Amino acid sequence: MIQKLSRNFFSSLSNNKVLNRGAKRWGLKLGASKVVAGLTVESAIEKIKDLNDSGRMVTLDHLGEFVNDAQEARESLREGLHTLDVLHEHGVHCTLSVKLTKLGLDVDEALCWQQISALCERAAIYDNTINIDMEDYNHYGQTLDILRALRKKYDNVGTVLQSYLHRSIEDTEQLAGVPLRIVKGAYKESSTIAYQDKKDIDKNFVNMVQTHLLNESYAAIGTHDHEIIAEIKAFTEKNHIPRDMFEFQMLYGFRNDLQQTLVDEGYRFRTYVPFGRDWYGYFMRRLAERPQNVTFALRGMFSK
């Protein structure tokens, strides 16, 4: 009950526009600097290099979503192109994760299509990859439609599927051959479309990963749960699935010891590294996921 109340409370805060505007003035306060790498790609680049040096690949997420202004959406494209340029300039092993609402999906789908295509094109020039983050369920169908259209021209783009959605296993089957990042999901959704019980979400998560791997498709396994990780490791060994067909992923600032252990064991590993001034919504969703994260944040506030 306490965990559910905590999730609902912080999920509601993540959508508070007044607090989000205030957060941009505060900077990376409230412990957010522990889980957000910086306000600009330049401030994040050294952290990316450190992760690479430790054997970890990176995907970089320029935070921000739910853009409702065409000019702001175009600025997001410029920032995305600049980020790809900087990653290439520094020669880091780092892909780019993007949200379609940041690129104007709620403003004009044609504009969004133009902009995500431009990012895929620039990434292809650099032999890099674009990963489309999945957002709330209101944007789910549009996101998959745009992904399928992009895949007709670009093979350097994939997306995220969330195991708390009832339909996710069906979509996993339909997206065989597409690189997928599989996660549990961090948005608050109704019971008509999403599982509410952790056991159901976890079971579906493992099923999705196993299904995608058996379909000989690349899977990025986004979880901090050591029991699920152990189950996936046993499954891949039993089914003789090569380690270059999957990778484990965790969020920047969490379970650093386990991240390094997986690297040392010879598994492909990628750290999801967020940056940018729009850090507030991301940070609140991290607090919503687990009550333990609140304690983590408080330690960050008072350790400065």
UniProtKB/TrEMBL annotation:
The record places domain Proline dehydrogenase at 45-296
> Could you tell me the keywords of this UniProt record?
FAD, Flavoprotein, Nucleotide-binding, Oxidoreductase, Proline metabolism
Q: Which GO terms describe its biological process?
A: L-proline catabolic process to L-glutamate
Q: Which residues bind substrate?
A: 99, 285-286
- Give the residues the record marks as binding FAD: 134, 162, 184-186, 198, 223-224
According to its UniProt record, in which pathway does this protein act?
A: Amino-acid degradation; L-proline degradation into L-glutamate; L-glutamate from L-proline: step 1/2
User: What enzyme category does the UniProt record give?
Assistant: oxidoreductase
- Write out the catalysed reaction: L-proline + a quinone = (S)-1-pyrroline-5-carboxylate + a quinol + H(+)
One function term, GO molecular function aspect: nucleotide binding
EC number(s) on record? 1.5.5.2
Its needed co-factors are: FAD
**Record text on cofactor binding:** Binds 1 FAD per subunit.
Give the protein's recorded name.
proline dehydrogenase
- Organism equals Salicibibacter cibarius
